[in-house]
Design a protein that fits this description.
This protein is an alpha/beta fold. The chain is 47% helix and 12% strand. The chain has 9 helices and 5 strands; from the N terminus they run βαβαβααβαβαααα. The protein has a 5-stranded parallel beta sheet with strand order 2-1-3-4-5. The longest helix has 17 residues, at 88-104. The radius of gyration is 16 Å and the shape is globular.
Length: 195
């Protein structure tokens, strides 16, 4: 199995002293039947428009032939659409295009939404997360809402405050990993649920 994670710097765990981020923690808690390859393909500050333009070429270089390998795509959406002033309609279309191409290529997709950032962007990120969830739902693609559960989560907020940035630390990435692991990750991979 080859899993490509495309997204911004949050997909790589920026701010995590252990350098695992949520992706490393998720893989560490996943018991694959055979060795799996996971590739994190991140670009700092990337919007969904930029992601939509690059993801296919980058994953194609890492995916194997369909008859030999199970290829999987994780779309890790960040918050940069808000900072860039992209309309929600544009963001929706960008994700829809990614998921439609993945489906046409017979590559199962899994979407992780943007987590909370600065309080002044809260309403916009919440709206963006809801829009992404709707796009994924219409295509029957698993979607992990990281915004709603973390927006007022004491540990998440303490982590951001301690770092003094919009990047979480170990605790915050651990919370994101927990949400991914408990929102259909194992069933999407066709694996038994981890206890």
């Amino acid at each position: 199995m080859r899993i490509c994670v495309v997204g911004d710097e949050l997909a790589t765990g920026v701010g995590d002293a252990r350098a695992l981020g949520w992706t490393g923690r998720v893989v560490a808690r996943t018991s694959f039947g055979r060795p799996a390859m996971m590739f994190t393909l991140a670009i700092p500050g990337e919007t969904s428009t930029q992601l939509s333009a690059r993801w296919e070429a980058e994953t194609a270089a890492r995916f194997g032939p369909e008859h030999e390998v199970e290829n999987r795509l994780v779309v890790a959406l960040g918050r940069h659409d808000v900072a860039a002033g992209l309309s929600v309609a544009r963001s929706r279309l960008n994700l829809a295009n990614i998921l439609d191409v993945a489906e046409a290529n017979r590559t199962p997709a899994f979407v992780v939404g943007p987590p909370p950032g600065t309080p002044d962007q809260g309403d916009r990120i919440a709206e963006l997360s809801d829009a992404f969830a709707d796009v994924a739902s219409r295509r029957r693609v698993p979607y992990v809402d990281t915004y709603s559960p973390l927006a007022s989560h004491e540990q998440w907020l303490a982590d951001l405050a301690q770092n003094g940035t919009t990047y979480p630390g170990q605790a915050g990435y651990g919370l994101m990993a927990w949400l991914v692991l408990h929102t259909g990750w194992h069933s999407w991979l066709g694996l038994p649920q981890d206890d």
